[in-house]
Amino acid sequence: MNIPAVSAAEQEIEKLMTLHPKGFDLSLDRIRRLLEVLENPHRKLPPVIHIAGTNGKGSATAFCSALLEAAGLAVHVHTSPHLVNWHERYRIGVKGGRSQIVEDEMFAEALQRVAAANAGQTITVFEILTAVTFLLFSEQPADAVILEVGLGGRFDATNVVERPAVSVIMPISLDHQPYLGDRVELIAAEKAGIMKRGCPVVIGKQEYSPALDVLVESAERLSCPMAVYGQDFSAHEEFGRLIYQDEFGLADLPLPRLPGRHQIANAAAAIRAVKAAGFVLTDAMIEKAMATVEWPGRLQRLTEGRLLELAPKDAEIWVDGGHNPGAGEVIAEAMAGLEERRARPLYLVTGMINTKDPVGYFRAFADIAEHVFTVPIRGSDAGLDPVALAESAFDAGLAAEPAGSVAEALAEIVRRQLPEAVPPRILIGGSLYLVGNVLADNGTPPK
């Protein structure tokens, strides 16, 4: 949908930002109080697929949505953060079609109702926005809800859902350490907080065995029916196809539309999760989902827009919001895969916020990136200074320099391009905030 230039919903959110603190205050007491005033809309939802994880939860959300929509079902989808507009966080299910970004009038009205119900009491804006999720999704008919965790799990505002159809835990690595802990075991324990006694649990591919151990122990303690990647279900690429297997059988499928080898495991987790939630999937439905799945800002190639005009002729431009060391590894692997198919010099244009581990992120690109340009991020008070970020890239073994903007970085890449040189591959990322800036500047916001 087209978001109005003067959005009523965004005006309401600006009001809330002046009244309530920014950021997170991990507790469930305030949102439970607010939901009680709203007559507990979170208890009036269709079956909920609740998804947590450090990396891959957005992709799992996209795959689950595509799978259910391929079955002809109406699916409400909640994601965070957004890229360009707040409305992107709320997709309203459409029977027999793709869920649609919430209409501005509907969103604004829900914000007003939730703010009135809160009556000025202490709360965070994220908690209000989560209450809006439950209000919107309870009042519009649908067959399923896909609910992405915002931060952590145990004390995330989405975790008031009492009986999810399935809880899904995607790959866990270090991120948000001030909130979640400085070891993967501690982070895994926080993510495991979305598991509910007796409710099905699907555990996606885990690179760290201590995290997997914590997740399995938590599911066993809560007597949750459990499916673990690599044990109860799996997937791999074979002759350009996705081979998926679980206790129900084997499926020979097309590779996912989303690029990167990591998406094979993400797709597998989503397939198993939808089955665990009680929905019937045929091979034809899964094939359709693999061909139609979309996830803006995650290894998304720009094929049109203003930024292409600023880049060298015939250059590839990719954007991705991955921002921690684990994400850096899978994105670098995807770039290496592209390099195998068609060799091009790789440039990074990177902006990050100050809660991340930039050296860990950059280290994954040390052997494949030609040069790094570090840029500021608009719309975030927490953006890292490009000079300091360039120093982090240098510490990771990369040649790097700051630039005043993405446009300046592209201009410098053009200046360096020799007339007969192979057109470069440019990866813009390091933060979803930067990706949002890029999609807005390019004139191609998510639809």
Automatic annotation (TrEMBL):
Keyword list, A-Z: ATP-binding, Ligase, Magnesium, Metal-binding, Nucleotide-binding
First and last residue of the signal peptide: none
GO biological process assignments: tetrahydrofolate biosynthetic process
PROSITE patterns: FOLYLPOLYGLU_SYNT_2
Catalysis: reaction(s): (6S)-5,6,7,8-tetrahydrofolyl-(gamma-L-Glu)(n) + L-glutamate + ATP = (6S)-5,6,7,8-tetrahydrofolyl-(gamma-L-Glu)(n+1) + ADP + phosphate + H(+)
GO cellular component: cytoplasm
Enzyme Commission (EC) number: 6.3.2.17
Entry annotated with the keyword Thylakoid: no
Family matches, as PANTHER family: DIHYDROFOLATE SYNTHETASE-RELATED (PTHR11136:SF0), FOLYLPOLYGLUTAMATE SYNTHASE-RELATED (PTHR11136)
Protein name per UniProt: tetrahydrofolate synthase
Taxonomic classification: Bacteria, Pseudomonadati, Pseudomonadota, Alphaproteobacteria, Hyphomicrobiales
